[in-house]
Recover the amino acids of this structure.
């Protein structure tokens, strides 16, 4: 699922480049990279915490708030300092929604019945 997210972001960046929207490409790529990084960290952290007995909740909360603070700082820098267009930044962030829709559609259309 993480590879699908990264591939989707890369394809969208290539499409924007091909369309000649180079000035908005950095905003989209920043949003897509930010959400892909967050999703990658979450995908690596949760399976490790499933088998951890003590301190799993504290570790999960610390990781969540650390990612939240870093994401907020990156978004602030992208909007206030770099003056990226917010629409393209949000479009990059929303690539995760397309990933979730594609993967949930894969499981909904699965015709195999369990015993």
């Amino acid at each position: 699922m993480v590879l699908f997210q990264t591939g989707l972001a890369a394809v969208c960046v290539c499409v924007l480049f091909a369309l000649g929207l180079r000035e908005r490409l950095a905003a989209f790529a920043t949003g897509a990279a930010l959400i892909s990084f967050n999703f990658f960290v979450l995908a690596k952290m949760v399976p490790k915490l499933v088998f951890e007995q003590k301190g799993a909740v504290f570790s999960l909360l610390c990781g969540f708030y650390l990612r939240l603070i870093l994401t907020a700082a990156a978004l602030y820098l992208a909007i206030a300092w770099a003056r990226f267009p917010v629409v393209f930044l949000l479009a990059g962030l929303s690539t995760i929604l397309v990933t979730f829709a594609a993967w949930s559609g894969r499981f909904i259309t699965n015709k195999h019945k369990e015993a």
